[in-house]
Design a protein that fits this description.
34% helix; nine-stranded antiparallel sheet; 17 strands; T-fold; alpha+beta
Length: 407
């Protein structure tokens, strides 16, 4: 499996704080056992449901016949709600979703090249050449430029972090950790100086989906001597753009009664029909992450959840935790190349903007040493609202959102 697969103030509403109940904690283990048994029964039901072609909520899976990014996403859809046959709608959605997942996998890939596809890997292998890229990739580059975000140019650092995340023990991980290894810290400083200098590296947008990855002779020589194989990489931000791509593909084809979510915290609810959805809110305690509350909402929405701890098996791509509890994440500050997080969790959402735009607005608030409430409240001016935890209290700056304790 390749690494990709494993791989800006109006009248701000006051912050609301919701007291969370500690009841029922002792019942969770018993509930987990029950849910496991229930899950087996649900799988049997889902299989029979599939055979019958009955309408209702189903997961649409990308075909496994070609490499795609479907394994990192869950696409849930209310089949038959549009009036079409559930079976017919399922076939059409599966085909469309498979094609979109395959295309997204190809164009955002920074590890593999594909015939006829000028993707991220191709651009890294062809610096100082004018290249035409896919429209979705061009839009992604444009959005980063609009937000003044140069995280794209930290590609060499991401490769080092990636090596650290896959380490099997602390001594091995420390070898790649700039906070513990002076040689790595010095290398990071040099790469950061190049990454933040448009004269050293800059992806120029020429219009009509044409780009030019300008890399200076000095940086090229440094890269060759240091064994670097990339100048740009979306890395941990990639799935925000892919979530938008998949969602917009579905919407453009008239499929709006579903949700698309990635394992690493990017969600698009496509539905404008008024159906109710919920989003589980987690917090971190000494024992680890726990489900603390639920956010209920209606209609289409983009949600981004940033967290500095693992929650699932795929999270090995973006996190490493040392035996003493110290955690390293892929949330890298462009100023110094060090990973940072101002909170354990920050959830932001918007009804008008996509996941990538919400994410790029969150980054200055989250990837920093100190959380400043006024900065997250400033995002309300752009229609981006947030939910976060401070010392166990659930805080929100959207008076219209419905929040409740986990039950």
């Amino acid at each position: 499996m390749n690494r990709y697969a494993r791989d800006k103030r109006p009248d701000v509403k006051p912050v609301e704080k919701v007291e969370l109940s500690e009841r029922h904690a002792r019942w969770r283990f018993a509930a987990a056992v029950f849910l496991l048994a229930f899950g087996v029964a649900a799988l049997i039901y889902a299989f029979l449901h599939f055979l019958s072609g009955d309408p209702g909520w189903r997961e649409i899976e990308a075909s496994a016949t070609k490499e795609n990014c479907g394994g990192e996403f869950a696409f849930l859809y209310d089949l038959g709600a549009s009036g079409l046959s559930a079976r017919t709608e399922n076939r059409a959605l599966t085909k469309l979703y498979s094609e979109a997942s395959e295309q997204a996998y190809r164009i955002f890939n920074s590890d593999l090249e594909f015939d006829g596809v000028a993707n991220v890997r191709y651009l890294n292998s062809h610096p100082n050449e004018e290249t035409e890229v896919d429209e979705a990739l061009y839009r992604a580059f444009s959005l980063l430029e609009e937000h003044g975000n140069r995280g794209l140019y930290l590609g060499p650092l991401y490769a080092i972090y990636d090596d650290m995340f896959y380490c099997n023990d602390d001594s091995e991980a420390a070898y790649y950790d700039p906070r513990q290894n002076e040689d790595v810290r010095a290398e990071f400083a040099q790469i950061v100086s190049y990454a933040n200098d448009p004269q050293s590296v800059d992806l120029q947008l020429l219009g009509e989906n044409r780009v030019f990855l300008k890399v200076s002779d000095e940086y090229l020589k440094f890269a060759e001597a240091d064994g670097l194989d990339r100048f740009i990489d979306f890395f941990w931000m990639k799935n925000a753009f892919i979530t938008d791509y998949l969602a917009e593909t579905m919407i453009a084809n008239g499929y709006t009664r579903g949700t698309i979510s990635s394992f690493d915290g990017f969600v698009r609810a496509l539905d404008g029909s008024g159906a109710e959805y919920s989003f589980n809110l987690y917090d971190w305690r000494e024992q680890g992450p726990y489900m603390a509350a639920v956010m209920h909402y209606r209609n289409a929405r983009s949600i981004v959840c940033l967290r500095n701890y693992k929650m699932n098996d795929l999270d090995i791509q973006h996190y490493y935790e040392f035996a003493d509890g110290e955690r390293r994440t892929s949330y890298v500050d462009t100023a110094d190349g060090l990973c940072k997080s101002s909170l354990d969790n920050l959830v932001s959402y918007s009804q008008e903007k996509g996941c990538a735009e919400v994410l790029l607005s969150m980054i200055p608030v989250y990837i920093t040493d100190e959380f400043r409430e006024e900065e997250v409240n400033d995002l309300v001016a752009d229609g981006i609202y947030s939910v976060w935890f401070r010392d166990g209290e659930l805080c929100a700056n959207d008076s219209g959102i419905e929040l409740g304790p986990e039950t």
